Amino acid sequence: MKIAIIGAGSVGTNLxxxxxLKGINAELIHARPLTAPQPPEGGGNDPxxxxxxxxxxxxxxxxxxxxxxxxxSxxxxxxAFDVYIYAVADNALRDVVEKIHxxxxxxxxxxxxxxxxxxxxxxxxxxxxxxxQSFSRDVLIDDWSGIPCFIEGRNIDDIAAIYSLAQGxxxxxxxxxxxxxxxxxxxxxxxxxxxxxxxxxxxxxxRDTQIPFQALLPLIDQTAAKVHSMSPAEAQTGPAQxxxxxxxxxxxxxxxxxxxxxxxxxxxQFVYMMMSQIIQNISGKxxxxxxxxxxxxxALEESVGIKHTRQVQPKRRxxxxxx
Length: 323
What we know:
323 residues; Rossmann fold; N-(1-d-carboxylethyl)-l-norvaline Dehydrogenase, domain 2; 2 domains; 13 helices; disordered C terminus
């Protein structure tokens, strides 16, 4: 089976790495040349021709990849592979898919939110291969055995083929339609992306102390470990869960007086307040003598920096690069 992975980003490079470890031959193909403007007739010295920008690090990151326009024309790509895996950004997926014409091959995208009908009638064998994990080009994952994969196909035969392909990397393979994948993707944003933002805020809160962020790692690890054996509701702890309004208000006052950091203090206060309100609402416990909601509402009114309609974006202060 000949596999092409279209896209050399975080997902594509990790998939290519995973297949290689399993002895499965897969070609990594950069998607950018597929959607780049064609050079003018007669050639010319265009540094962006073939989608390659000067000193573009993405074009040097893989040794065994294929630059489509340099080594392989679109005509040559027709029927060159049995499986095409599109590991590209959602907003580029349709454009990239339209460039590939291989009606006998299986075409799969790796998105948690895009529908299966992104593949047109010229691709009757198509589906979804969605590995539910956070990927990075800088940290390649060697062991995929515990990573869940959610698949979808247009017919029974295609589903069986996609299932077999996924099982080559993990035993945790499940069928999931677009509705369920979208819900899963949202859940992942809360569980992963927003959690990581909390880690960044926690690091920033410690900015003028002698305590390193690494001191929080055992707590973070234990928090994640607990939900393996109990529900998140059972694992919830903290002052808001206890209805301890005095501690919450004291924390708000401390945050307001923090020295300048990566985040605005008012933003940290706002996040702390909203999280505490939500926890208190679902816990059903009230602070005495006033509810935690009342205390936080009072803090909201008294603090000039906290506004629900705040439009100013936090300034970057050199600690975190733009993403």
